[in-house]
């Protein structure tokens, strides 16, 4: 009986909609005023990723400040929303930016799950999403969406660079591979292992400790020691990177088995928290503050002037996101996803503090650097010791 | 056999009939207004508000199902989100890989929630009070880890994404308004079913267990079985709610069955006043609005607002919490 | 193979040091529960406050003096915070467990946010006092001295707690209260002051544990929940309200977290809660919890 | 005639204490069987062993010839063995009628959906049971608001509503005023003769008024079982246990502090 009543109600409301044909949830809506572009900056402001969010915001603000706050002819109106720690907050915040704030473009996103979680939303809204950090390959692989582009990296891309490099070292005892047990960790492990073994390297062992709940890496460190490996490749970020690098040193492995990793292992604030334990750790990444180029030194100087802090790769990626949007909006005749995407696919080489890069598909094709942590005047930096060649999402 | 036995209890109730009848009319009017407002919402609200309301409904059903445990049976669970997640993953997986119709996915989600609740609940319902709280927390965390680690099925921390828009009879409900009605309908069914359980003799027995478990045993009730049954029904409700969540959110991540979700839904039940199902819905609305609507705009201070709400509720709304009274007494007595 | 023996020895030792750190953490939680019937879910956030105090006071290269100063500051802050929390909880004394637990959960959310505002969201790592920095060779591998120090601290604390509880009048009152709260109040002991003091002491143990733990776990947002869950598992495994249980539970969970994880790396995510579930299946009230289902 | 309830070699130890020590007991059909003895004699423990609240260390309990030693409280209850508790255990947040209804409803089958006809049958039966114990006009009062004596009455109504074959009463008169005890006595006398009653009671006057058989427990063991007159006349009880005639009332009538665990 209840069900019939319910169905009746549903039918009734359906009829109302059919008649009225408009209203509330069913209406469309277009973005802000003439001559301005509304950008939703979706970055973590709370939770464990918030330091990254801070860097991203600075990169974004810095570019706008340097370039008069406009993309092409458009005034930029930035709305910031909190991505939080994951999709529960991030997806809701994205929806707010798209539906409530009616943003034309969304920029940012640290957590891959958030990016993947809003794919459908972006597709349906036909708005551009420019990912400025999240590294899951799937975000821009296999045409998930024509509207999702990225100015950062893929997890596998960075790992492959290190894998290819380590295969050229004389490590007859093999390399031990460690990454947290989650999607990004797995992508890094797969990317590293494929590139490393293809080039003739031997993997001495592999551990994937639980993500987010591991406080103590001693069991892993014991296994590394017992494996007889001559080097360790690791993928860690944030607090796990701090803990891992410090314990790697405390348990005496740093002197015996050199530590390598993807660059997030020693990037930004993480490095200063690790302190001396991080010295001599070698990582691969597409940026370092120590890059010797004019573009970079100008950028670093401006950044340090504005924020009294050294820039990070996260700031650069968002800085570049602004630059990319600027280029695209110079040519675009509209602010919808199709128009901007078309402009993006036509872009050539982009100049950036990280060096020149271009889009390979919808993700950067860029040079990777070998970085070694060194102590310079009492503070730690990622000195650039080598170039690892150019890598794209798939090659 | 006793003179008192012949006293007729009907005299009193006959006298009370008229005011009660009037109260019933007021109630019906209120109810109809409420239903009309709920149904009419997408006609006036913008898509964002409509979508938020859809989320509120999914979360409210989760809270209602938890209320069956916390408020009615007196079993405070911190791990109820686990069954919510199980339902969401089930519905999501079936939609992605088999492409089944929305209502079928919901049914599957309900069954999955119930089966996992049955498989894990026997462990939890052996205990009560704080120990039940901890065991459910442990079960929730284990399932959370499974969601994290079983990447081939769940997609791990990236979540199970790319869930297609819900279809009903082959028509897809990409429009937030239609989706809202679909979720509202399913919510209504779930709510009424749980309300029916609460009002049945079984529900009375559950309240008896809440109030005085040893006495229920002495009356011959198989208490363990009843608690397990309540746990399974609550799990089914949570599974259905999970199916509704994925219909709206179209991604499921391990966070959806984590500790935070479990704690938030418990908060929702407490805000609304444990033991009253509609109260749990109001609590759910408050929690979702704070988290999804106001939270993202607060420069990252959403959790602070939530904490303050938490504290205020515990202090200022003791009636809201009255339903869980008795946990303490029971624990002593057991 | 000797190296496998060595690594197992290291695991064992490490489990011991983690276990004793967990004990300093859990004993406060279990004390407050046993005495006041309050499951203090703000314990993790309070630990984190202690860790931030450690970070703030100790600086880059701390000496013994600075380390002791940090412990002192943490203890004082903890006592005051505990007293305040006890007053917050007081009005809810007649309400069920869940209400008080929920209040402390709200306090935990607020405190964590305040800490994040005050200290930022960066990961802070803390150096041990310089005398304890560095590593020594243990069983063929090197092992951080500070962790050995933690074993000593934990042992000392266990002895102190034992002496206080078993040999002093306050301890007798504590034991009596844990055994039968109503009896103690019926006898006419004004335990209001005692309760404030015990709450203060329990919370101070958490902040002190924060300082001790800072050189191992650092200080960062989110650590509060990790720590809370570990502490809860410890006290539930040991039996809520039992101090002996907290010790045994902490040492057990310490081994589970190190030895268990190294024995079953593929199930590392599950060993903690697996152990909890196993203990509760066998003994629904924990190892040293009150016996179940006897009285009606 | 076989005993309704019998136990053989029943023992229960708490650590080194033999609370119940090798007790044999037979309760005849229709009997009003009293268990007496001073505090610590093991009366309540024995009752709990019979009802299943406690499990025996050794020995067996049989209900109408069927071994029930390993059955749970609720199984025993369904077999027709019901009990009241020393401190009335009631559903304090529910009305008196709802308390009784819970007892009645189980026998009508519990279902997770509404059944109007059964519901009204249950309500009628509950009202009747309340009438039987003299609480008809208190049926809509929450059990928590009832006076102590009324709670006892309600407790008995709830237990009777289970339609037991054997009723175990644990100190039904504890904490009652003389007037209430008088009413209680009348109430117990009204229990249908086909229901066997086994009760523990300190109030000897009530015991000798109601009992057809009396068992005296001492230090966990059975001292004597017999008719009230036999027990009264027993030298063993008089001398070894009750002391002199003048003291025995004091021994047995010491009022117990009435504490209800569920109301705190």
Automatic annotation (TrEMBL), chain A:
<dbReference type="InterPro" id="IPR028082">
    <property type="entry name" value="Peripla_BP_I"/>
</dbReference>
<keyword id="KW-0732">Signal</keyword>
<comment type="similarity">
    <text>Belongs to the leucine-binding protein family.</text>
</comment>
<dbReference type="Pfam" id="PF13458">
    <property type="entry name" value="Peripla_BP_6"/>
</dbReference>
<protein>
    <submittedName>
        <fullName>Amino acid/amide ABC transporter substrate-binding protein, HAAT family</fullName>
    </submittedName>
</protein>
<feature type="signal peptide">
    <location>
        <begin position="1"/>
        <end position="18"/>
    </location>
</feature>
<dbReference type="InterPro" id="IPR028081">
    <property type="entry name" value="Leu-bd"/>
</dbReference>
<feature type="domain" description="Leucine-binding protein">
    <location>
        <begin position="36"/>
        <end position="374"/>
    </location>
</feature>
<dbReference type="InterPro" id="IPR051010">
    <property type="entry name" value="BCAA_transport"/>
</dbReference>
From TrEMBL, chain B:
<feature type="transmembrane region" description="Helical">
    <location>
        <begin position="219"/>
        <end position="245"/>
    </location>
</feature>
<dbReference type="InterPro" id="IPR043428">
    <property type="entry name" value="LivM-like"/>
</dbReference>
<feature type="transmembrane region" description="Helical">
    <location>
        <begin position="25"/>
        <end position="44"/>
    </location>
</feature>
<dbReference type="GO" id="GO:0005886">
    <property type="term" value="C:plasma membrane"/>
</dbReference>
<feature type="transmembrane region" description="Helical">
    <location>
        <begin position="130"/>
        <end position="147"/>
    </location>
</feature>
<feature type="transmembrane region" description="Helical">
    <location>
        <begin position="56"/>
        <end position="75"/>
    </location>
</feature>
<dbReference type="InterPro" id="IPR001851">
    <property type="entry name" value="ABC_transp_permease"/>
</dbReference>
<dbReference type="Pfam" id="PF02653">
    <property type="entry name" value="BPD_transp_2"/>
</dbReference>
<dbReference type="GO" id="GO:0015658">
    <property type="term" value="F:branched-chain amino acid transmembrane transporter activity"/>
</dbReference>
<feature type="transmembrane region" description="Helical">
    <location>
        <begin position="265"/>
        <end position="290"/>
    </location>
</feature>
<feature type="transmembrane region" description="Helical">
    <location>
        <begin position="179"/>
        <end position="198"/>
    </location>
</feature>
<protein>
    <submittedName>
        <fullName>Amino acid/amide ABC transporter membrane protein 2, HAAT family</fullName>
    </submittedName>
</protein>
From TrEMBL, chain C:
<feature type="transmembrane region" description="Helical">
    <location>
        <begin position="196"/>
        <end position="219"/>
    </location>
</feature>
<dbReference type="InterPro" id="IPR001851">
    <property type="entry name" value="ABC_transp_permease"/>
</dbReference>
<feature type="transmembrane region" description="Helical">
    <location>
        <begin position="41"/>
        <end position="58"/>
    </location>
</feature>
<keyword id="KW-1003">Cell membrane</keyword>
<keyword id="KW-0812">Transmembrane</keyword>
<keyword id="KW-0813">Transport</keyword>
<dbReference type="GO" id="GO:0005886">
    <property type="term" value="C:plasma membrane"/>
</dbReference>
<keyword id="KW-0472">Membrane</keyword>
<feature type="transmembrane region" description="Helical">
    <location>
        <begin position="64"/>
        <end position="89"/>
    </location>
</feature>
<dbReference type="GO" id="GO:0022857">
    <property type="term" value="F:transmembrane transporter activity"/>
</dbReference>
<keyword id="KW-1133">Transmembrane helix</keyword>
<protein>
    <submittedName>
        <fullName>Amino acid/amide ABC transporter membrane protein 1, HAAT family</fullName>
    </submittedName>
</protein>
TrEMBL record, chain D:
<dbReference type="InterPro" id="IPR051120">
    <property type="entry name" value="ABC_AA/LPS_Transport"/>
</dbReference>
<feature type="domain" description="ABC transporter">
    <location>
        <begin position="5"/>
        <end position="244"/>
    </location>
</feature>
<dbReference type="InterPro" id="IPR027417">
    <property type="entry name" value="P-loop_NTPase"/>
</dbReference>
<dbReference type="GO" id="GO:0005524">
    <property type="term" value="F:ATP binding"/>
</dbReference>
<keyword id="KW-0813">Transport</keyword>
<dbReference type="GO" id="GO:0016887">
    <property type="term" value="F:ATP hydrolysis activity"/>
</dbReference>
<dbReference type="InterPro" id="IPR032823">
    <property type="entry name" value="BCA_ABC_TP_C"/>
</dbReference>
<dbReference type="GO" id="GO:0005886">
    <property type="term" value="C:plasma membrane"/>
</dbReference>
<keyword id="KW-0547">Nucleotide-binding</keyword>
<dbReference type="Pfam" id="PF00005">
    <property type="entry name" value="ABC_tran"/>
</dbReference>
<dbReference type="InterPro" id="IPR003593">
    <property type="entry name" value="AAA+_ATPase"/>
</dbReference>
<protein>
    <submittedName>
        <fullName>Amino acid/amide ABC transporter ATP-binding protein 1, HAAT family</fullName>
    </submittedName>
</protein>
